[in-house]
Specification:
The protein is mainly β. The chain contains 2 helices and 29 strands. The strands form 8 sheets. Strands 12, 13, 15, 17, 18, 21 and 23 form a 7-stranded mixed beta sheet that branches. The chain has 2 domains: about 350 residues, Immunoglobulin-like (Sandwich); about 30 residues, no CATH class. Strand 1 and strand 2 form a beta hairpin. The chain is globular, with a radius of gyration of 22 Å.
């Protein structure tokens, strides 16, 4: 059975406008700094009738009690006993059993359902969750096989959830005043909570488009760039880890919503199966909720033979030029103005791939403290057939050793 060791610790993250922000978060490395979001836990269920028990050892290195909630999981226990809310002098202080500073406690649960889930602190959640004490859990079906067509699915063979590549996007928000107050040990009134940054996999745009594990973002290891080839089925997992709702959507095509909160959108009886999946232009990613979607890019006018990717890049192009010297060809006048490419500018277009946005439709959320572009924004890149390496969009079968 999988065992995960987590430490609740502090650390700092960076924003594209040069800020360094103090956070609390989880790490799975002894002596490590807080990671935003926390380490992704990926579990493959065992064949029935066996049940898949998961063990999470939590060590608290923060100055106040911390706990972990596991929404959607079965029979959650702590140190062998059923979890319970914690009270002090008649007042609720934690939604589940907490870990005191310097202590280690053990949670166990059964992963009974495939899909995408969250884990997050249940102690002072109005403070600790926005500070960064959250992460995602992916539970794979027992018949999942990444190298076999028909068995590389989100919910199991025969469920219509086959995919070629998958991406996880965990979204949240940051009020710098809260983070500074916690760092300095000062009080903070949650009634005045006002985010100034919005994060996707712990990063704000334009950092969301950088590769994983870049050296200058040690506590934000995961990028959010989605790369695919025409016609591929891409599983996009949204997880709303913050305290606000975020309307997210990719340009190009609708997504087909196949699962919510780790539940397949199908109604099955012994004699009949009703498909309850549906397509959406925008998915309102609710706080504490998860969404599993299948996305396939076809493109207006795209034909595999007569009108292929790659995109032909002209000398005059519609451009988005950022302060970091980044340029992108979009084919859309809404992303820039036509003009000669300035001297010394370099395009990120590598092999004629086609770029377009995935972003929030709430305008303040695509800024960094009011400066556009930023926040909840990334790019989808459609590569010519046969040019995108296999490792892009390939998450491991399981994340932690048995």
């Amino acid at each position: 059975m999988p065992t995960i060791d987590l430490w609740a610790v502090d650390g700092y993250i960076s924003t594209p406008d040069g800020k360094s922000i103090y956070i609390w978060g989880f790490t799975d490395k002894a002596g490590g700094s807080a990671q935003l979001p926390g380490p992704t836990i990926i579990i493959k269920r065992q064949d029935p009738p066996a049940r898949t028990m998961v063990t999470v050892n939590l060590t608290n290195s923060l100055p106040e009690p911390v706990s972990i909630l596991f929404p959607g999981q079965s029979e959650v226990r702590v140190n062998g006993n059923p979890v319970q809310p914690q009270y002090q002098n008649g007042s609720l202080i934690s939604l589940t059993n907490h870990c005191l500073p310097g202590e280690t406690i053990t949670y166990t649960f059964y992963a009974e359902n495939s899909g995408t889930f969250l884990y997050e602190s249940g102690t002072n959640p109005h403070k600790q969750v926005p500070m960064g004490l959250y992460g995602a859990i992916i539970v794979r079906p027992q018949d999942y096989m990444p190298d076999h067509t028909g068995y590389k699915t989100a919910y199991g063979t025969g469920t219509g959830t086959e995919f070629d590549r998958e991406y996880l996007l965990v979204v949240g928000e940051i009020d710098p005043d809260l983070h500074q107050a916690v760092e300095l040990g000062k009080p903070y009134d949650t009634r005045v909570y006002k985010p100034r940054y919005w994060t996707m996999n712990g990063r704000c745009a334009n950092d969301t488009m950088l590769p994983d594990n870049v050296d200058h973002l040690p506590n934000q290891p995961h990028g959010a760039m989605i790369m695919l080839e025409p016609g591929e089925k891409v599983l996009i997992r949204y997880a709303g880890a913050g305290v606000e709702n975020h309307p997210l959507h990719p340009h190009g095509n609708h997504t087909r919503l196949v699962g919510m909160d780790g539940r397949l959108l199908q109604n099955r009886t012994l004699s009949n199966t009703t498909d309850l999946s549906y397509k959406r232009f925008t998915v309102l990613t609710g706080a504490g909720q998860t969404y599993d979607q299948i996305y396939t890019w076809t493109g207006l006018g795209f034909e595999p033979v007569t009108n292929q990717i790659p995109t032909v890049i002209p000398n005059l192009r519609n451009m988005a030029i950022g302060h970091t010297g980044m340029t992108m060809w979009s084919g859309s006048p809404y992303l820039g103005v036509k003009g000669e490419l300035p001297s010394g500018m370099v395009s990120y277009n590598e092999v004629g791939e086609y770029h377009f946005m995935l972003h929030s439709h709430a305008e303040p959320e695509i800024t960094n403290w009011g400066a556009f572009p930023g926040g909840l924004m990334t790019m989808i890149a459609v590569y010519p057939n046969g040019t995108l390496e296999r490792h892009h969009g390939m998450l491991p079968v399981e994340s932690h050793g048995l």
